[in-house]
Design brief:
- The structure holds two protein chains of two kinds.
- By secondary structure, chain A is an alpha/beta fold.
- Chain A contains 18 helices and 20 strands.
- Chain A folds into three domains: 183 residues, P-loop containing nucleotide triphosphate hydrolases (Rossmann fold), CATH 3.40.50.300; 144 residues, P-loop containing nucleotide triphosphate hydrolases (Rossmann fold, 3-Layer(aba) Sandwich), CATH 3.40.50; 81 residues, no CATH class.
- A six-stranded mixed β-sheet of chain A has the order 6-7-8-3-9-10, with helices on both faces.
- In chain A, strand 9 and strand 10 form a beta hairpin.
- In chain A, helix 8 crosses helix 18.
- The longest helix of chain A is centred in the middle third of the chain and has 16 residues.
- Chain A starts with 7 loop residues before the first strand and ends in a 6-residue tail after the last helix.
- Chain B has one domain: Orthogonal Bundle (ABC transporter involved in vitamin B12 uptake, BtuC).
- Helices cover 71% and strands 2% of the residues of chain B.
- Chain B has 14 helices and four strands.
- Chain B has a two-stranded antiparallel sheet. Chain B has a two-stranded antiparallel ribbon with strand order 2-3.
- In chain B, a hairpin with a 2-residue loop joins strand 2 and strand 3.
- In chain B, helix 3 packs parallel to helix 8, helix 4 packs parallel to helix 6 and helix 13 packs antiparallel against helix 14.
- Classes of the chains: A alpha/beta, B mainly alpha.
- Chains A and B meet through helix 2, helix 4, helix 5, helix 6 and helix 9 of A and helix 1, helix 2, helix 9 and helix 10 of B.
Amino acid sequence: MAGETALLEVRDVTKSFGAVAAVQGVSFPLYAGEAHALVGENGAGKSTIVKMLAGVYEPDTGSLRVNGADVVFHHPADAKAAGIAVIYQEPTLFPDLSVAENIAMGNQPLTRLRQIDRKAMNANAAALFARLGVQIDPARPARGLSIADQQLVEIAKALSSEARVLIMDEPTAALSGVEVDRLFAVVRALRDEGAAIMFISHRFEEITALCERVTIMRDGRHVATELVADLSVDDMIRRMVGRDLSALFPKQDAEVGEVVLQVEGLGRAGVFRDISFQVRAGEIVALAGLVGSGRSEVMQAVFGVDPYDTGSVLVRGKPLAKRSPRAAMAAGMALVPEDRRQQGLIMELSIERNVTLPRSRALARLGLLFGSAERTAAATWTQQLQTKFSRLSDPVGTLSGGNQQKVVLAKWLATDPKLLIVDEPTRGIDVGTKAEVHRLMSSLAARGLAVVMVSSELPEVLGMADRVVVLREGRVAAQLTRAEATEETVMYAAMGQQVAI
Amino acid sequence: MTSAPTAAARSAPPVPAGEPRRNPLGSLLRTRELGIVLALVALVGYTAAGNPRFLSGQSIRDILLNTAILAVMATGQAVVVITRNIDLSVGSVLGVSAWTVASLMSDHQGLPMVVAILVGVLVGAACGLLNGILVRYGKVPALVVTLGTLYIFRGLTYSWAGGKQVNADKLPRHFLQFANDSILGIPWLVLIALVVVGGVSLVMRNYRVGRELYAMGSSPQAAELAGISVARNLLGAFIASGALAGLAGVLFAARFGTVDASAGTGYELNVVAAVVVGGVAVFGGSGTVWGAGLGALLLTVIGSALAVLDINQFWQQAIVGALIVLAIGADRLVAVRIARSLRKRDSHV
């Protein structure tokens, strides 16, 4: 393969969003006739690479080369014209248009009057489906297709544009075994015809089954590009996660008390099932797993934001009503959501208003809410959390991310909860504030609060949790004690490998 | 889905396209226009039974003439709504165009009709271009932009007209005659409306740019990723809506003869009503232009029928409102059914 001109080459590419460098100095080539895996943890920069190849983002520095010539993609159409087809994690079909139209969009066959030749268009789609060995009616609208069928339509789309480079971002996440086999047969056939395939997946068995080479990324940087045959799964995982577990996780030991939260056999069709775990007072339990494994969905169902079909939730031995965040709050639960801008705070309102919002009824006198009562209550908690702000009456939107997160925490701690659920507590927060949030969670647990933490950051999970519940594809893959939990065991469980302790 | 051995299937001859299988969803969507036609037939039948003069030549001619202006505007609006936008400024654009053309024609009596139409269309297109630029590059929702330009265009017309009005006796004869002239028994106004509705329907149905407009409304995000020139198409849609409102302004001036700065005030709501009743989904991506044309016809027929049946005109608004709710209700019903048939995977709050 060496010496040959790469079909597509990524050369020293960097891309930043604000102060966050998503991709830093990444290079790798993609040759004709190879299937190349791209792996890395959540947030390692894989999707950013995909979007640069697709023409959605332009690299800040570095370049892309197609057939040895520098190219610049200003627009997805440019990438398409260069023969690059991208299949995104979430299919991007037009639900109102027919399947055949979806496939042909942009290069529909035309009649002499430059009208769209529907007959030819449907015939083309039917031919592509025959080639893929699937039966989908080309004339039906894309709306209502199963995820697997949508994925197949996306592949037919790529085939119809005669792409030379096919990039697949976790195409198998929603497919069953048979569907994966069929997809792989198609991909192998394309590869044998001389196309270059870039395959992103969290499933190592698929990578070893399909790909010749693998590029590993970590924290936006290129770690290695090697032959898959030369690497064991262990090697790959180690290189994906292998960073120094920087201390800064001030875990205090706490007296573990009674069971506060008991989740039994919780299930929701198509999202998660058979979820059982307990959380005791004074304990921090982390819910780990890959993006899409159902972590946040489980906790939203527990808190009553989302419905669930089977199972039950008990708080201190008492069953909790379904679908009622109000009942959950009354039972002493508090949920700090993942997206604080959208779900956790009202950006235009003042800090004090935000802090006292869940308690406005309790603070009110004769149904009227007095500013002084709000101020006193808000001042207590913001001081305890060392929130930095100039005035309590400033809008929350003016604070930094870390301080906003503290306001969200203050808001819920003011309700005096027994159980605190925090979803991605430190996402988008700088390192210093991160440590403060961690210290805070730890001291809250030490005071007897039960804490459930949903987190995508392995170091945070390992550093903070007394126990780790690992979810994979909507099911509990492993429950690990603090002693058992290491980067390897958690990643193994999250990716569906055997846990070897 | 059945599983088939893929490697073998690769060499298999392509399946002949043949007769595409009927699917219930497609025919359900197709019934939207059918529903309007049935409603029209029922309404006309009932009214004519009560008062046969409703079907007289003059009555039909009046209805069609009244429909023409609304249908031309509904055509442009449908294009915009299909892209998941809205153009609320059309009533004011009609006003600007009608005033411009009326003052031009009263000052220059000799100008031919073609010039009047051209000027009206250009004035409207310029207004539409402004809307499109603000929506696309100002990144402001079309609802807000066009609500703003609704007042801006109207305000400009008022300050320009300064309380004056152009009366029929100031306008050249051939200009006024245009509204009454026919060719092969079809009034010019109706012919223009038919050509506009038919032509734009054809473009939306059978040409690439039309399908791209549907795609943009169906999934704006996917449209960007698919490499569709979203900016160009969006500007085009707003220009089309503006230009057709401008054309409607010329037709308005010719038909009514008396034009002041308030011409077309409140029309935007009739236009949006016609489009929605005509089966164009307010969230874009589906519906047809000719459906919107039928919607315009239905609204006009309702107005005339109520007059003929001697029902209080005030009922008209209530009935139009009920139709809109009914149309949107039908949309929701379809959407809910589809959602139920498709198990929702990730229903995040």
